[in-house]
């Protein structure tokens, strides 16, 4: 089921009806059983729940230096920095006027940046909890910190990508096509960035010169909007994902497509009715394994595909009941984490294609998640207005 189907299903559950006429005591007794949709709420494997948001929580990041702090942003126009160990609020990143869809810490955890849909970006100093910089761009699509410097990159709906030095605010813009810059990523060398656009093109930018090094378009590009980009650890390979539902492997040095991964949808295609579009199976998330030549691609139909880069072939297909929202690889092993619209986090062994474990606790879809460096905890955010911390220590370590 899509997020909309899930939302409709939840709307059909009448939480108040049961026991309305009975005395309070009995109403309380039955409350636990009512409104549990498909067991989504029945089980909670989380250690900590952060519940200061009053609407869907769209994004989460962990501070890279210590992994002890999380920042979350939500539909309630709020962002919070809080402690992962006990959910204790450190400070609120106040003053946003729209849903906070992007949030992240600088590489050294000195700053935290929050961005809302209207394009207001704010940066706070974590130790003093004070706002040090803010700027307003057009409608914000994505935002990312530089891996080695206090530099922030963001893409907007007018096709521009912006780069600022923080906190001085020195600014540079990279003009893309006149359509949204839908996704972007700074490459590991810190000198180049890859940006994907709604018209299916991808550009590799030289951050210093402000020039476009390579453009992928037409047959080489995608036929539909790009949804995600990733690079391998040394930045030699880039992977792009699109609504079209292809994933393309690109050499960052030459800008040439090395290989195209196309997934046939598992869901039986319903013939499109009058005025209805056939349901597309877009690529929602992708990433490279650091320890083996593997890449993972997560699809809207719930397929997790593990591709072998050395043979450019499909190695495993791991099926989820509902769409994958995001995937992340563990830093130092061949384990992939997925979160999906059914509200669960799953760990998969990419070598065998088998599921290692599953964690539940949310009563709605998971919208974003983060894994700490030693892969002992996962922090999730959800449409149920909550963020949760799960301990995922595994016996095989």
UniProtKB/TrEMBL annotation:
Residues 1-44 are annotated as: Disordered. One of its GO terms (cellular component) is cytosol. Keywords: Cytoplasm, Repeat, WD repeat. It is found in: Cytoplasm. SMART domains: WD40. Residues 288-366 form the Anaphase-promoting complex subunit 4-like WD40 domain. It comes from the Eukaryota. WD repeats lie at residues 50-92, 93-134, 188-215, 317-358, 359-397. CDD domains: WD40. SUPFAM superfamilies: Quinoprotein alcohol dehydrogenase-like. InterPro entries: Apc4-like_WD40_dom, Quinoprotein_ADH-like_sf, WD40/YVTN_repeat-like_dom_sf, WD40_repeat_CS, WD40_rpt, WD_repeat_multifunction. Its main location: cytoplasm. Gene3D superfamilies: YVTN repeat-like/Quinoprotein amine dehydrogenase. Plays a role in angiogenesis and cell migration. In smooth muscle cell migration, may act through the RhoA pathway. This is Angio-associated migratory cell protein.
């Amino acid at each position: 089921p899509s997020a909309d189907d899930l939302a409709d299903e939840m709307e059909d559950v009448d939480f108040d009806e049961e026991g309305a006429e009975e005395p309070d005591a009995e109403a309380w007794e039955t409350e636990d059983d009512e409104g549990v949709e498909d067991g989504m709420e029945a089980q909670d494997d989380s250690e900590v729940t952060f519940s200061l948001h009053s609407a869907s929580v769209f994004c989460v990041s962990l501070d890279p230096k210590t992994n002890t702090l999380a920042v979350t942003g939500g539909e309630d126009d709020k962002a919070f920095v809080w402690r992962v160990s006990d959910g204790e609020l450190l400070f609120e990143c106040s003053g946003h006027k729209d849903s906070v869809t992007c949030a992240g810490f600088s590489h050294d955890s000195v700053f935290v940046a929050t961005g809302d849909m209207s394009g207001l970006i704010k940066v706070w100093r974590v130790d003093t909890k004070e706002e040090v910089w803010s700027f307003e761009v057009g409608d914000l699509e994505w935002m990312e910190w530089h891996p080695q410097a206090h530099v922030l990159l963001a893409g907007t709906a007018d096709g521009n990508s912006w780069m600022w030095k923080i906190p001085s605010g020195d600014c540079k813009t990279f003009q893309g096509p006149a359509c949204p810059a839908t996704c972007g990523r700074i490459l590991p060398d810190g000198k180049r960035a890859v940006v994907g656009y709604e018209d299916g093109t991808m550009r590799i930018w030289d951050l210093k010169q402000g020039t476009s090094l390579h453009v992928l378009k037409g047959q080489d590009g995608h036929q539909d909007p790009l949804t995600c980009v990733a690079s391998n650890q040394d930045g030699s390979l880039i992977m792009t994902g699109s609504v079209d539902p292809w994933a393309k492997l690109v050499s960052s040095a030459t800008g040439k497509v090395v290989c195209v991964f196309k997934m046939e949808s598992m869901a039986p295609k319903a013939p499109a009715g009058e005025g209805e579009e056939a349901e597309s199976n877009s690529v929602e998330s992708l990433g490279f394994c650091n320890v083996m030549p593997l890449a993972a691609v997560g699809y809207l139909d719930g397929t997790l595909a593990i591709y072998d880069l050395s043979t450019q072939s499909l190695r495993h297909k791991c099926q989820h009941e509902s769409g994958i929202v995001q995937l992340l690889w563990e830093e130092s092993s061949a384990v992939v984490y997925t979160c999906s619209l059914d509200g669960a986090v799953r760990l998969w062994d990419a070598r065998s294609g088998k599921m290692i474990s599953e964690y539940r606790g949310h009563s709605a879809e998971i919208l974003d998640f983060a894994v700490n460096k030693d892969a002992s905890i996962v922090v999730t955010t959800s449409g149920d207005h909550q963020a949760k911390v799960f301990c995922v220590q595994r016996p095989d370590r």
